[in-house]
Every structure is written in C-alpha cells, then in structure tokens.
C-alpha cells in the first residue's frame, strides 16, 4: 500500500485524506496531533520528527506551502517531494513569482520590484501615480502584507523604513476574479477544471461558483504547469477585465477555489492530487453540474442549513477570518447556484461579514 | 463530538466513515482489526468486546444485518440502536418479512410459508405448478439458499428432508429489477432517491443505473419505512412487470444499489444514514446527474480505467463473487451512462463474469 505523507494538518490535508480513502493509501500527516487532518490520518508525526515522517512515506506533499523549510528540503533530497521545491520557492518571494510570469510570457499585472519601503512608496508615486498595490515580497497569506492604494499613499505608510523587497503593482480594476484548478502528472499529462467566478473580500475568498469565464485560462495554467514541470494539483487566480485575463497568483497545492469539485465533478481536486503524485494520470476534470462554494469564515457552530452540503473542519477555536468550514451547493444552472449562495450568505452572516 | 458505532467492518462501514468525515464524528467499528472499515476507524473493537464498543458509542448502527445477535440486543437495550431490532428481526426469517409485506398491504409476489423441504416441493407443485422459487427462511445472502424452479423441481432437490421453514413464491417473469434507497429520521421525516435499474445475476448485483423506473416505488418505500418506524437508510428491491411493481426484499441498511449516490447526488446514502441516526433530518435526495455503478466481483487488482471512479475496498483476498470494489460512472444521459458500463464490463470481465 502506498504511503502518502502530507505536511500540514489543516483542512486541505483533511480533505485530501477524506477523498483519498476510496483507494488503499496510507496517509501520514506532519503537524500537531489535534490538527484536523491528523485526527483522521493513519499516523501523525510531530514537525520536529520530520525525518521519520519522510522516511515512512513513499511520496511527500504539502497542503500549505509555508511549512518547515528543512522538512521540505529533506523530502526533496530523498526524491519524494511533489510538487517540487522550485514551485515552493516562487511562493517564498513574491517578486520571484512575478518575474517568473514575466519571463515565461504569462500575463500578469504590470509591476516593479524594489528594495525598501521608501523606495516602494516612491515607485508607487512615480510609476503608478499612487494608484496601485504595494506587496511585501516575503510572507503574506489571505491578503496580509498587501496595501491597496487608490490615490492616497497614507494607507501604505506602514511600509516606511522597512528594509525588504517589495512588489509594486498596477491596480487592476477588474470585472471579476476567477481561478482554475489544474492537475499535472509525473509524465507531464495535464488537465484543468473549468474556471470559476470568485468573490474575494479583504484578500480572502468568500465564495465562488462555476463553470464561469473564459476557458482560455485553462491554457495559461497548462503553460505555467508545464514550464515548472509541475506535479500535482495547483490553483491559479486571475483578474478578468473584458476579454483580458491576468494571473494574480498561483498556489502550488490544492486550493480553496477548488472545493466545489468535491460535489460538482466526478473527481475532486484532492482526489486528483493524491492520484498524480502517486504516479497516476490526471482523471476527468469535467464538471457534472453547475456548483459553488461558500466559506464559513469565523463561524463558531456548524450551521444547520438544508440548501447545501456542510464540510466542517473541526478546528479548536473560531477566530475572525478563520476558515472553519465550507458549504458546497449545486443547481441546474448558475442562477440557481448563485441564488442558493445568496440565501446562505444571509443565513450564515446574519450580522454581515466581519473580515 | 458524537461517536457513531458501526457493527461490521466491510465496505458499507468503510464508505459510511469516508462519507461521514465531512462532519466531526468519531467512528468506532466492531470487527476484526484488518477489516476495511476498521482500518480507517477512530477505534476498532473486537466483536467479543461488544459491550465496551456499545458503551463507547453515542449511537450504534450496523453495516450488515447478520452480525452478533447479543451485540444488537445489548445496543437495543441501551437505546442506542438505529435502525431498530424490529427491522433486523424481519431479515432473520424470510417468511416474517414476506408476511409483513402482506399484512401491511405492500405489494410482493404471491407466496406460501411451509415447514420442511418436502412440504416446500409439494407446495411448489400444487400451488405453483413447479414454476416458482423455494427460499430457505433463515440465512441466505446474495442469492444463497434460493432455488429457482422453471418446470423441473430437480434443481431444488437439495431441500428434501430439510427440517426448517421455507417460503415458496411465484416466479415473477419481470421486465427488470429496480430499487430505491429511502431515508427516514427519528422524527419520521422521509426522503427517497429515485429508482434505479438493477442487473442481478445469480442473486448478486452486477450493475445498476438511474434514475430509471416508476417513482411510485418511492411511495412504497415510504410506507414500509413508516410502518416500521424506521430510522436510517434502507434499500428496497423491486420486480417491475409492466406498470406493476412488487417488493422482492428490503435491507435495513445502506445498500449496494445506492453506491451511485456517492457521485450521482450531492448527498450519498452513507452521508444520509450517519446524519439521520445522529438526529438530523434527511438531506436532499435529488440526483445531480444520471449515474451508475458496476461491482468489481472477484476482481483481484485495482482496475486501471479512466471511464469511471474506482472504489477499492482493500479486502485481503479476492474470492469468486466477492465484492472487491465498485466503479461509479456519470453521464449526460442514461445512454451515456449505460455505454460506459458496457465498456467497463468488457474491460473488467475480459473472460466473462464468473459467478
């Protein structure tokens, strides 16, 4: 039986195991024993025990790219890591990711890389007329470390005097945000789900639904995955403006905007990921029904609702912005899906969203 | 966190746990530690330890009705057993099940109950003109203990001299077999999936697909479930002849003909079962796409196919007729689903089905 080691015990690892159980895999998780995925893993390893974790696993993956560097490197050195370190490295420094897009002819918003907060503010003024985004190159997740300036640079004053790399980027007045989940095998076979419409607020995904948007995005994902010789599932987020699409960023892992595949497709992104990292070819990425997903952000109790299917991650405590679970919905068309999401938004966030 | 105890560690228990993981349940299984469901349970109990198993569980159910009687009775006495002992009792003696249908105005083939094999053969001749089925009242599963006589009673000569109850039943020259999965809550709420077309050979299910057949079958299932004050998912098998439907038998549990719900509906039969026995209301039983299922009977290795989704039960050894896994397929219509099943039949059973 093949043993799959997952670094990180959050909801993405949890769903990987849930979905992986239809085939005889062993799942090992590297995280605290009370993390969601550890609770249903075949065995849980403390992060300090990373060598034993990697040695016990036939292949190693991660559900979150911000895990211990030494564990990643050890798994890489043992030739067990999928996707590869290269993909993770791009996420360690935002400017490398942006330059990667530019160097590979992948569409992305116009940007300049600078060193130092003062230089970032100057560049924002000189090159972008104080209308753009300053992003810290290192760190940041779910919108952290990003400053959106629409005329008044005071909102980014925090960066003054900071001595680190920044990406200063044009502000894209997009029509909507979208994303595509792609999956690529060890032999380079590629497949992608159709794009979805995503609603992000304050840098965090609230809901998404699909299929929606230009299938051309799938080809961009293929190009990115091929260029990286990527193995696994990946999520790529786009800005869409008219007929133009631009990559905002990618995640070298299963992605929140792909949770709908648990119920909107025969094979989910989690299923795909586990399959390709263990040597299989991508499975069908056709969707079987229009569908959507709503995140349960900071929600304290399992909602009692009948309009969708609740996935509850069983985290110890609810915190503002924390993803506590999600709800998947299906419908005969996108209007029905959207209607269900709208109803759920009212039922779940009675007092409005607090982000 | 609610603890669900499952008696029996086969594939039905395995899928109950797989599906139950989207909500924070603990799953305890009573069976050998190397049984499929035990391997992914939170804790596994030996059948001799049934008291500790029941005491540890908030609710107790079974994935197979032929489990230890004393364990069932203990769980019943502790008021934890769903569905109830009454439903199981009907499956202990086939004649009780048949009489139950007759007494409750539920359509079923004409039958006579007799004691002794010789009397069974005499009844078959006198009342059914040697054209009918002799079924041992006790035992029997997947077609065992049943003798189909079409003119020549010699095929049932095994029963001669046997001193036990038999059901002698008319032979129904049905157009097709069908089934419905129903689900009923503690408060009596009921819902049912649409019927499916089932192909049984030698008393064992080979494949099924749907939705197919008269929705009136759903109402018969409701009547049966209500009369039993049933709690949980149940599978009811029918003979269909023209516009007439007759119950062949029912199973007081999730059912092989409901495996398609894992991929053809938002909520699966397993999901429903776990939810209602823990106090929730039935979830939507709408299907999201035409779909079907093919059993992997006696198949030794995980099939490498791309036309469907393989569920492999990870049983220690393959035996003739043994259900080693199944494949779910979906399609835009039943013709596409049926086409995929036909293709899979050729790929999986290259030398034909050996039952």
Automatic annotation (TrEMBL), chains A, B:
One of the GO biological process terms: 'de novo' IMP biosynthetic process
Domain ATP-grasp positions: 98-278
Binding positions for ATP per the UniProt entry: 94, 135, 140-146, 169-172, 177, 248-249
Reaction it catalyzes: 5-amino-1-(5-phospho-beta-D-ribosyl)imidazole + hydrogencarbonate + ATP = 5-carboxyamino-1-(5-phospho-D-ribosyl)imidazole + ADP + phosphate + 2 H(+)
Entry EC number(s): 6.3.4.18
Presence of keyword Metal-binding: no
Protein function: Catalyzes the ATP-dependent conversion of 5-aminoimidazole ribonucleotide (AIR) and HCO(3)(-) to N5-carboxyaminoimidazole ribonucleotide (N5-CAIR).
Similarity comment: Belongs to the PurK/PurT family.
Name this polypeptide is given: N5-carboxyaminoimidazole ribonucleotide synthase
Natural source organism: Sulfuracidifex metallicus DSM 6482 = JCM 9184
């Amino acid at each position: 039986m093949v043993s799959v080691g997952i670094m990180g015990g959050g909801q993405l690892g949890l769903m990987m195991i849930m979905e992986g159980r239809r085939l005889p895999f062993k799942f090992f998780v590297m995280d605290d024993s009370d993390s969601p995925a550890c609770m249903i893993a075949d065995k849980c390893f403390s992060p300090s025990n990373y060598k034993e974790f990697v040695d016990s696993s036939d292949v190693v993956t991660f559900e979150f790219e911000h895990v211990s560097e030494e564990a990643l490197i050890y798994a890489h050195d043992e030739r067990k890591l999928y996707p590869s370190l290269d993909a993770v490295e791009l996420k360690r420094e935002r400017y490398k990711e942006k330059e990667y897009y530019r160097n590979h002819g992948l569409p992305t918003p116009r940007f300049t890389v600078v060193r130092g907060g003062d230089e970032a503010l100057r560049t924002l003024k000189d090159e972008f007329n104080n209308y753009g985004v300053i992003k810290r190159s290192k760190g940041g997740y779910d919108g952290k470390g990003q400053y959106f300036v629409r005329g008044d640079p005071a909102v980014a004053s925090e960066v003054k005097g900071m001595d680190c790399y920044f990406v200063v980027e044009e502000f894209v007045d997009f029509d909507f945000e979208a994303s595509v989940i792609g999956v690529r095998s060890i032999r380079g076979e590629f497949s992608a789900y159709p794009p979805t419409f995503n609603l992000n607020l304050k840098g965090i995904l609230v809901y998404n639904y699909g299929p929606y948007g230009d299938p051309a995005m799938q080809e961009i994902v293929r190009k990115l995955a091929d260029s990286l010789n990527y193995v696994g599932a990946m999520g790529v987020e786009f800005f869409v403006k008219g007929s133009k699409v631009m990559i905002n960023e990618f995640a070298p892992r299963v992605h929140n905007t792909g949770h709908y595949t648990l119920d909107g497709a025969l094979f989910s992104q989690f299923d795909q990921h586990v399959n390709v990292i263990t040597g299989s070819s991508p499975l069908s990425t056709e969707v079987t029904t229009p569908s959507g997903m709503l995140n349960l952000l900071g929600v304290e109790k399992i909602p009692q609702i009948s309009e969708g299917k609740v996935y509850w991650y069983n985290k110890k405590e609810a915190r503002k912005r924390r993803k506590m679970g999600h709800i998947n919905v299906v419908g005969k068309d996108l209007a029905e899906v959207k209607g269900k999401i709208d109803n759920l938004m009212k039922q779940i966030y009675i007092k409005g969203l607090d982000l």
